[in-house]
Amino acid sequence: MLNLPRFKAAAVQAAPVFLDTDATVDKVCALIREAADNGAKLVAFPEVFVAGYPYWSWIMNPVEGSPWFEKLVRSSIEIPGPEIAKIAQAAARHDINVVIGVNERSRYGIGTIYNTVVTISNEGRILGRHRKLVPTWAEKLTWAPGDGSALRVHQTNIGPLGALACGENTNTLARFALLAQGELVHVASYIALPVAPADYDMAEAIKVRAAAHCFEGKLFTIVSCSTVSEEIIAAMEATHPQARELLSRRNSAFSGFLGPDGRVIGQPLIDDEGIVYAELDLSRCIQPRQMHDITGHYNRFDVFDLRVNRRPLEAAQFNDGGAPLPEFDLEPVRPGEAE
């Protein structure tokens, strides 16, 4: 018998403690506790919430923004590492699944960082670490491209769970790759982007993308978007005199829930900081698929063929066959002796 979960979910709309990793992690743990205390079994956090988004790349030239890049690298984290372990412990302590965006630093290159989405189970296990496939527009000055190794749907106690970061939710093939793995709960993490073109409504764009994924895939989407705090504006204003004007446009953040028919559930948060909640019943994903099941009977897999490369991309592959390290004579060479 098919039994699909029904649970309460939470979407956080907030700003990090800008470029302060430890303080932001403490804020994350407090928000996890708040969401769990309100009955949530899943809490979604914004894109690169630990510990900030590179707004300087949108309002400064690359030379002006370079010192800020160094600050971001210094505040980035490794996975696994103590910061994500602390968040995972909070997830286990409060019996809640957590999806959170972080700036992840390469373990083998201090100048290479990734826009990473981490999925953590209610038992505190790190289920996935997905690096954003393609940094968007000005973001290419900051993050390296990810790979398909973690383009996966995770089996959790609240159902099959997948996640993508910001502009990836516009990537039809990335979304289909998750749907083809049975995704029923999707987390879309975003940042507020007040500096988009004048005729671009960021909040509306977020909603449209989420609605498309929900309607096409017949599933639920939880959207979590950051806000631009006074702290962020003041920091940018110290370097760029127009920062306040550029970063203060309204209708730049949307957080909330959309159902399998593509419609918004409840009242979303627009711009303001807070947590929004919704009850999600995954059994609502069944009937709409009788009409359109694009990963099942409503497709032609003899016509279309999607292949996903899940091989991790690495700087080098060392094929030493597992041979032991050679022994070295560590005695110092004395003057006059042949080397």
UniProtKB/TrEMBL annotation:
Q: Per UniProt, what is one GO molecular function of this protein?
A: nitrilase activity
Q: Which residues form a coiled coil?
A: none
**Which intervals hold domain CN hydrolase?**
7-282
User: Where's the active site on this chain?
Assistant: E47 (proton acceptor)
Cross-referenced Gene3D superfamilies, in alphabetical order? Carbon-nitrogen hydrolase
Top-level taxon: Bacteria
Q: Which family does it belong to?
A: Belongs to the carbon-nitrogen hydrolase superfamily. Nitrilase family.
Task: Kindly provide the name given to this protein in its UniProt entry.
Answer: Aliphatic nitrilase
- Region (Disordered) location: 320-339
Recorded source organism is Kerstersia gyiorum
- Report the SUPFAM superfamilies cross-referenced here: Carbon-nitrogen hydrolase
Query: Which Pfam family is one of those matched by this entry?
Result: CN_hydrolase
